[in-house]
Design a protein that fits this description.
With about 250 residues, this protein is an alpha/beta fold. The protein has a single domain, classed as NAD(P)-binding Rossmann-like Domain (Rossmann fold, 3-Layer(aba) Sandwich). Helices cover about 40% and strands about 15% of the residues. It has a seven-stranded parallel beta sheet, with helices on both faces. Helix 3 packs parallel to helix 4. The termini are far apart. InterPro entries: NAD(P)-bd_dom_sf (IPR036291), Sc_DH/Rdtase_CS (IPR020904), SDR_fam (IPR002347).
Amino acid sequence: MSGRLDGRVALISGGASGMGASHARAFVAEGASVLIGDISDEAGAKLAAELGDAAAFIHLDVTRAEDWRAAVDTAVERFGKLDVLVNNAGILDGGPLGTYTEEQWQRTLSVNLTGPFLGLTAARDALVAARPAAVVNISSAAGIQGVAGAHAYTASKFGLRGLTKSAALELAPHGVRVNSVHPGGILTPMLGAPAGITLDRGENTLTRLGLPEEVTPLVVFLASHESSYCNGGEYVVDGGMTAGRAG
C-alpha cells in the first residue's frame, strides 16, 4: 500500500463485518489507526486483534448518543485525535405498504439516518480540532432512486444524502469535508444474497453484485488528502444501477 492515510485516525461505525471491515483493513494498510465501532462485540474484537496495534474495538450502538460520545473519546484517548468519521452502519428492512409497521420504519430511520446524525454531533469538535478532517457517509443507490417495497430504507438513504450536503456546508469553514458514497447491491451479510448471483441488465449494467473491496478504494480516497477539493459530493458505486434501464 502507498501510505495514503499515514497518521490519520478514523472511527468506522458498523466496522466489524461487510463493507465496514473492508474499509478498516484498507485504512490500516494505508497507514491509519482505526477504532472499529459495532454492536457485534465478538466480530469487532476479532478484527481489531487481526489488525494489531493500529486498531481497537468499541461497542457502538449508533442509535445511542452516549455510545457515540464514548467512541469519540476513546479514539482521541487511544490514538491522540480523530481525523476521519465513516458512518457505515446500516440495516436493510422492507415490505409493502399496509404490512410494513411503524416500528420497522422507526428502527430503520434510527439506525440509518439518526445514527449518522448522532455520529456527526459527537465527532464534530474532535474533527474540527484535527483539521483538515473528513466525514464519509455510506448512503446507497437507494439514496439516488426509489426502491419499491423498501420505503424506510430508501427514505433513510435519501435523508443521509441530504444530511451530507447540509453538514458539508456547515463544516467546510471549520476544515471538515463531508461526502457520501452510494453503493448498489454489494455482497455483504446484510444483503443476504448468494455469491455468484447474476442480475439482468435492467438491474445494473454489469449484471452482478459488487464486492466490498470495490467500494473501499473510494472511501479511502474521500478520507485522504487526495480528495481535498471534494465536499458535499455524492459518489456512486453501483455497477450502473442508477444509469437507467439498459436494453
